[in-house]
Write a structure and sequence with these properties.
375 residues; four-stranded antiparallel sheet; binds zinc ion; globular; alpha+beta; single chain
Length: 375
């Protein structure tokens, strides 16, 4: 009996989960199936083309037509290029990447020399210059973009999706915070040392619970004695928790500068969540990681996306689709090459079925079958 691979991936899962978690209407609408586009539109619109329309002031229908090639090879190449520039915006700016700059990447030796007693301030070094932010992110993806373009992408993204990106918090003036800011406010409440039992909820239907696990004991005088810093916990809609060890708020210097009354450049300090992380080289829990709302949002989105895939892999098994592997956002089944076996269409149907712990999350799927596994 011969076998065949059936491979199905979750379409744009991080963007879909992010849009849903922040309840960002404009971005969620991108994923409503487009019936008139037939099978091509079953997953909704292409999120990169949809964002490109905001950058280039065109309609989705016009850009889609160019992209499909019906207006000739030149228009097709132009639409492809616009989609390329929009892609890092959708994937990176959503987690609060900045536009970026060219900065010196000091080597360990250089940092050591700078800290030495005999270091003369201002001594130049020949450490290499590297790109940062979205500019670097795009470069890593192989997308050629200028620094100005990277800044423009970030600005347009932040203005387009306020439910994710707004840092304003004046509800009395109709200015509501986006999810990055909401997360920072919730974490500040939960980690307030004076109120150790604070619980906050975030997301549609309050599906994410944020609280802390205090570690210590009550002594003979009835006073709480902390034996180590608390764990901050974010419970995902599936019930699984993300844990931040030795969590605390600490005043941290921000990567951007401010100005004093006389117009002098000054460092800006904000309370940030700090927690214990592992050193990439030594694998020891000996580094402090500082985080912000954009990164916490990334942790939530990626955690939820993982749970969606895990859920679907179990559903495949239940439907006689034996899973032999999974890679990133795809599930791989090996079935008997037989007319009676469930098909790729069955897999896509399972993948796009709503999940009970994530009502309203629009899922899309793309699959293929073949005698061997490939990309
Ligand atoms: Zn240096």
């Amino acid at each position: 009996m011969s076998l065949r691979f059936q491979v199905t991936d979750l379409n744009a899962i991080e963007t879909r989960v992010g849009a849903w978690l922040a309840q960002c209407t404009d971005l969620m609408n991108v994923f409503v199936p487009v019936l008139e586009l037939g099978r091509k539109g079953r997953n909704g619109k292409d999120p990169y083309l949809a964002f490109a329309t905001k950058m280039y002031g065109t309609t989705y229908e016009a850009l889609w037509a160019d992209y499909s090639g019906i207006n000739g090879p030149e228009r097709k190449a132009d639409a492809k290029r616009k989609r390329q520039v929009a892609k890092p915006g959708v994937l990176g700016a959503i987690y609060r990447l900045s536009g970026g700059a060219l900065v010196k990447a000091h080597t360990d030796e250089c940092i050591k020399a700078k800290n030495a007693r005999d270091y003369v301030k201002g001594t130049p070094c020949d450490c290499p210059m590297v790109k940062t932010g979205l500019w670097a992110y795009a470069d890593n993806m192989g997308v050629d973009m200028s620094m100005e373009q990277a800044h423009q992408v970030v600005e347009i993204f932040r203005n387009s999706y306020p439910e994710i990106c707004s840092m304003k918090n004046n509800p009395e003036c109709g200015e509501y915070p986006g999810i990055w800011k909401k997360l920072e406010l919730a974490v500040a409440d939960v980690m307030n040392p004076d109120r150790p039992a604070t619980v906050r909820y975030i997301g549609p239907g309050n599906c994410v619970k944020i609280d802390r696990v205090n570690i210590g004991h009550t002594n003979n005088d009835g006073v709480w004695v902390e034996s180590r810093k608390p764990i901050m916990r974010m419970q995902l809609p599936s019930g699984r928790c993300l844990h931040y060890l030795d969590a605390r708020l600490e005043s941290t210097m921000m990567p951007w500068k401010g100005e004093d009354e006389d117009g002098n450049e000054i460092d800006i300090y904000r309370d940030s969540l700090i927690y214990a992380g592992t050193n990439q080289k030594t694998k020891q829990w000996d580094v402090w990681v500082s985080t912000h709302g954009g990164k916490l949002f990334e942790n939530l989105v990626q955690g939820i996306a993982r749970d969606v895939l895990a859920c679907k892999l179990l559903d495949f098994e239940d439907a006689e689709l034996p899973i032999v592997g999974h890679v990133h956002d795809e599930g791989i089944a090996l079935v008997e090459d037989d007319i009676l076996s469930p098909t790729v269409l069955d897999m896509e149907k399972i993948m796009t079925t709503p999940i009970d712990w994530a009502p309203g999350l629009l899922l899309g799927a793309d699959g293929y079958e073949d005698s061997y596994y490939h990309k």
